[in-house]
Amino acid sequence: MVETAARKPIGIFDSGVGGLTVVKEVRKKLPQENIIYLGDTARVPYGTRSARTVQKYAISNTDFLLTQDIKLLVIACNTASAIAYETLKGAYGLPIIDVVGPGARAAVAASQTKRIGIIGTDGTILSGAYQKEILKLEPACSIVTRACPLFVPLAEAGWCDKNDEVALLTARRYLEPLMHSGIDTLVLGCTHYPILKDAIRAVMGPDIMLIDSAEETACDVRQMLDRQHILNDSTAPGTSTFFVTDIPHRFAETGSRFLGRELSDVSVVDIVQA
Ligand code: DGL
User: Fold this and answer.
1) Which residue in 55, 58, 107, 205 has its CB near the most CB atoms, within 10 A?
2) Each residue of 109-133: pLDDT tens digit?
3) What is the extent of the structural domain holding 162?
4) How far, in Å, CA of 186 to CA of 113, rounded?
5) Both 22 and 91 in a single domain?
6) Ligand 1 centroid to residue 109 C-alpha, Å
7) 73 lies in the same domain as 128
């Protein structure tokens, strides 16, 4: 019975391509695991919506992934993690990993000066979830925050290359106040933002540590599977299956560039209620 559960897939969701930053790390650390990914592209962005709406979306995404018989859920979206993690944990009986806790932990470990910047969607920044997690770990930290909502459509559109003028200009506009705030560490508190890492790095300069919670999240996934005795022990490489709620070709285009491999097998699923 334990072996059957171990062979089940891991379910991962985000509002769009952002969660692929987490898929990439989970794939790297757990190559034998099967992954089912859902990008809720019909309802992206989440970051500008109310808590009630984000919770509703998170529940319908989880319900869909449960129809795929997943053994563990990863909320690969900071907005949904910040706003809906407790709701999902209370409503479902399966192990759930979020991205805010791992990101906060990585930031506290990386910062020497304990002056940390956080960028994210309006929803994530307003929720105060990162601030709360960081201060729980290190009460002496001082925190500067900035919502950067336009980064999400830029990443979804694939305007994220190193020399993309729009990405650079947008990054400069959002990040300038942070450049002069004395931080030594900047949390990319949205899973879409690592897609724009080059532009963010170009503006912030080489000395600021950029924290992408994907790697730390993948470690949590491994630990949780291990603790529950449901690590996939197969020797065959795991499979990845991709679902979106709208316009698969755009997701495939941006996703392929980002993951560095062809994503030709993206299916549309109709989970969005009118
Ligand atoms: N990638 C998501 C996050 O980490 C959601 C962005 C959005 O849909 O606004 O917050």
Assistant:
1) 107
2) 999 999 999 999 999 999 999 999 9
3) 100-213
4) 12
5) yes
6) 24
7) no
